[in-house]
Specification:
The chain has about 270 residues and is of the alpha+beta class. It has helices spanning about 1-10, 15-40, 40-50, 55-60, 70-85, 90, 120-150, 150-160, and strands at about 180-185, 190-195, 200-205, 210-215, 220-225, 230-235, 240-245, 250, 260-265. The chain has a five-stranded mixed sheet with strand order 1-9-6-3-4. It has a four-stranded antiparallel sheet with strand order 5-2-7-8, with no helix packed on it.
């Protein structure tokens, strides 16, 4: 009876499935609270992460049965956390994953060489000879093809040199005022930018060396960020982003579909 009592007093050991369920409930609660604090709906998060709404809802509710394999759940948590401004990799690493290494036994067995009949050896020799002849023929054909195309290359180069360089006479494109430049503000004034999305675009904002946001914002979104020393804004669709510096007139960051990066620094006070 004493042995049974000692066994009953031991804390119960949770299975891997129970640990995942508890951890998913904890992570889902944190993501739900952060989303509510930022005033984002699940539909907006769907646009940012491209994850179906039912999967996002299952993560927030800690519903493990409606989610795929654990390794995919970890990836979904990472994207969800990134969209809300967390460190997605670190956030998702809290979800436990157990990898099982399986060494399957081969279903085939090696037949001893002494059991091969002479007929089998004869067929094997024929197969090796056919493969060798085929490979040699293919190699010779490739060599002949390369030899026939090499003499034509100088002519092609001469023709390209003879053609007038029309591209040099084309009018230079307009210079984007925001493209890869370092803007400064008035003396001692903090940096503040506001972005308005004309089209859905990926954006990364770094304030004073720290990443404040990285993700895709839907069309019509408006966000503002501040920094004491420097703000850096990068996007993959410059023509879809209107940016204003310290509440000035907003301007497009560049052309549609082009990657642009803008740095705005606060001018030190002397």
């Amino acid at each position: 009876m004493k042995w049974l009592n000692r066994k009953d007093n031991q804390p119960p050991t949770l299975s891997v499935e129970q640990q995942r369920a508890e951890k998913l409930a904890e992570i889902g609660g944190q993501l739900w609270a952060s989303r509510q604090e930022q005033g984002l709906s699940l539909e907006e998060v769907v646009l940012l992460t491209r994850i179906p709404k039912r999967l996002l809802q299952a993560i927030e509710e800690g519903n493990l049965e409606d989610l795929p394999e654990p390794v995919y759940i970890q990836g979904l948590i990472r994207q969800f956390a990134d969209a809300l401004g967390f460190n997605g990799v670190e956030f998702a690493s809290n979800f436990p994953i157990v990898y099982q290494q399986i060494n399957p036994k081969p279903t085939w067995t090696t037949k001893p060489i002494n059991q091969l009949r002479p007929l089998h050896l004869y067929l094997l020799y024929i197969f090796v000879i056919i493969c060798s002849v085929s490979g040699l023929s293919q190699l010779l054909n490739n060599s002949a093809l390369q030899a026939s195309t090499i003499p034509n290359r100088p002519n092609a180069q001469k023709e390209s040199l003879a053609q007038p360089q029309e591209t040099e006479s084309k009018q230079a494109p307009e210079v984007n005022p925001y493209s890869n430049t370092l803007l400064t503000t008035k003396d001692g004034q903090p940096v503040q930018i506001g972005v308005t999305l004309k089209a859905s675009s990926w954006i990364r904002v770094v304030a004073d060396g720290k990443t404040q946001f990285e993700g895709t914002l839907p069309e019509g979104s408006h966000r503002t960020w501040k920094a004491q020393e420097q703000l850096t804004v990068k996007t993959d669709n410059a023509g879809g982003v209107l940016m204003s510096v310290n509440q000035e007139q907003p301007k497009e960051m560049g052309e549609l579909g082009k990657v642009e990066e803008v740095k705005i620094a606060a001018k030190p006070k002397f």
